[in-house]
Amino acid sequence: MGTSPAIVMILFVAVGCFMAYPEAVTAKHTGITRHYTFNIKLKNITRLCHTKSIVTVNGKFPGPRVIAREGDRLVVKVVNHVPNNISIHWHGVRQLRSGWADGPSYITQCPIQTGHSYVYNFTITGQRGTLFWHAHISWLRATVYGPLIILPRQNESYPFVKPYKEVPILFGEWFNADPEAVINQSLQTGGGPNVSDAYTFNGLPGPLYNCSAKDTYKLKVKPGKTYLLRLINAALNDELFFSIADHSLTVVEADAVYVKPFEINVLMITPGQTTNVLLKTKPKAPNATFLMLARPYATGMGTFDNTTVAGILEYETPSSSLKNRPLLKPGLPAINATNFVANFTSKFRSLATAKFPANVPQIVDKKFFFTVGLGTKPCPKNQTCQGPTNTTKFAASMNNISFALPRIALLQSHFFSQYSKGVYTTDFPAFLLIPFNYTGTPPNNTVVNNGTKLVVIPFNTSVEVVLQDTSILGAESHPLHLHGYNFYVVGQGFGNFDPENDPPKFNLVDPVERNTVGVPSGGWVAIRFQADNPGVWLMHCHFDVHQSWGLGMAWVVLDGELPNQKLPPPPSDLPKC
């Protein structure tokens, strides 16, 4: 029996479509593979009339945009041409069974040494939205960072109005000094590090800084359009308020998870967080130019960069009408507006729909209580230090354990268990061994213990962690980031967590799902997650100064019994220590 001309024509068209648009055909099921090369190289950059050599990716500051669709595979070859060791973290990517590609130095890999390379190979599974990538060793992420934009699968739409244009805006911090020298001096003296000299939008400090009017970020818009702003806080040590004069914003996504939309005039974003907002421009071009501003939210006792970055929102009109336009400025909350922040963060809710469910663990297998805060270490003999006293250095800890980075990567040590002896111990305390009035008068003894201590949990354990701020050396907000997982923020409050009266108030219906959460200043936050991703996963404060002082710990999630519940062996090019 012969084939009809109509069937031949249908086959021909189908094959032709596949050849022309392989992504359209394959992305729905398995996605495509996208290749990038990151050459780590030095580049001279001038800001604030100050020229210096900085570490960059491909000579760009901020670094290049990485774009994928949900379901795609990313293969990124990182080649190190600089004297510093380097590693790249794909912040917020779940890394399901691909922990070797997560990137934190001495946790999932040894850093890439000068003249060496490593290929990060991972698939974006069940995620879409705004994330970012950054260096994950010492303070190199001050200049080594860029957006990671995950589009929905082909033919899938956003659960909100389709934007006319999408614009990533990265918040950063600029140091005139070398950030590596800044943290090294701090660790040596035991004092607080020198603060940054400016904040930036997409690497530009703007007109409120010395010598920087020419380095101003401008967002040019058309009237009557909806723009999706992908906001990323890549600053090292500062939570930031953000606002655009005379324009409201609609929050639609946080940490690459859709949220129930809500309208705001001012938002707060911690380092490590991303927030997608819709900006609806005015129906007719107004006779004004609008400042967008960001400045810190800070409650700690330490010094901080108390400056403001400005960018300009400008309506496209004939150039003759640009002159003599008034410049409108937004209002921002007080620097220490903790109640504003608590009110703002409480607005975030998961969509919790059939398509985008909130799979909150309803029953918890293991409960943990971690204090999060500052402390001290004794000054070495025959040295005068610049910590809280001249005999102490600043430190930071979780459950009074200051996390010490090992010399061999933890994931390697765990996977090849014969190497784990002497690298880490598995006795990180599930609860603080000596409780105290966490947010009241601090105890006299503020000395922390050092150690590379981990928590081991079986595959698929449902976990609840209460993160409690302390008043030791001053209560402050701490942005806690968990690698390898998203978690649900089921509760938060001020003062000390009450294990009897607070859990009944937890939101187990539509809590926000995030990868980074601000532990409230003088308060607590409760999170839940399902430990369905085997590997070793860092959990740390995303203030780099606190991470450098030891505010972190790591989870070991054991393999499950099925093949698809086990971590595969490492790639052959995994860097060696």
UniProtKB/TrEMBL annotation:
GO MF term (any one): hydroquinone:oxygen oxidoreductase activity
Keyword terms: Apoplast, Copper, Glycoprotein, Lignin degradation, Metal-binding, Oxidoreductase, Repeat, Secreted, Signal
Cellular component aspect of the GO annotation: apoplast
Obligatory cofactor(s): Cu cation
Enzyme type, top EC level: oxidoreductase
EC number of this enzyme: 1.10.3.2
Any Pfam family hit: Cu-oxidase_3
Signal peptide start-end: 1-27
Reactions catalysed according to its record: 4 hydroquinone + O2 = 4 benzosemiquinone + 2 H2O
Domain of life: Eukaryota
Function field: Lignin degradation and detoxification of lignin-derived products.
Protein name: Laccase
